[in-house]
Amino acid sequence: MAKWGQGDPCWIVEEREDGTNVNNWHWTERDATSWSKGKLHDLLVGIVVENETGLGEISELKQVEGEASCSSRKGKLTFFYEWNIRLSWKGIIKESGAEHKGLIEIPSLSEENEVDDTEVNVSKRKGDGDILKDLMKTAGTAKVREALGDYLKALKTEFTVGMILPTKAMATQELTAKRKLSEKALQASSPAGLGVRIPTVALHRTELFDTTAEQLYCIFTVKDLVQKFSKSPAILEAEKGGRFQMFDGNITGEYVELLTNKKIVMKWRYRNWPEEHYATVALNFVPTPGQTELQLDCKGVPVCKGGMKFCWQKQHFEEIKGLLQLTTLNG
Fold this sequence. Notes:
The protein is built from 6 helices and 13 strands. It is an alpha+beta fold. A hairpin with a 2-residue loop joins strand 12 and strand 13 (291-302).
């Protein structure tokens, strides 16, 4: 792709007061480099991660080299970005009060790779402090990738305001989309199985994990970690009212309540359950010496549909333990 300013001038429509890009037909181009550098600084610097042993923080954006741009042609937006990013982090070990510093390097953030596949390297200065390095490699890396995802969302929404001019057809499509969303929201807010009584049961289990409550909570709320233990693509909006989709769409739902590192409550369903029927799933994270006890409570599970115990024991608990063991060995 040509760099900013190298497009064929006979096809580029300049932003001018007396010119209109009718029906978004002509090619317009906008340099996003300067805007991106500011946005990356705002999203990355200040990230904080913490567990019972230490606290780490990204303290400085030491280097951000590259460029970004957005072009529009026939109403379609195309994005180009390529960044080499270097960050400084610092942390403190709670027990000893010792402070340590290190670097986070992102050698290639580009449109050629998904954010979840973007390489993030964590290092520290010589000496002790592996506890903090491990914290930054796990929870820190997850938050960095989340911030990079937020940058790309902003690039494709916030930065592009005004690049695509509204047309009559687009206005009609937007109105139709809003109507569909309203219909879905109304259906989601209706009582499950309205007019049809479904016999249900409750499920309660407890499981011990060799990790902290914070890390276990992250495994359930950070997209990258969910995809690792589920071994499949996932969609996660870990906030109240946010949607989630896991295991190739076989499990879907909505977050009802999130208390950081303590509790998650969800509307949860299997694909083959009666339409619009959701169980209520609550996860309580209880710290114990050297471990975390996860308390699972499910209500409203259809009697006629088995597999709930298998799903949580085999596809969640055992896979998460495997992920934790792998993380420990690689650390």
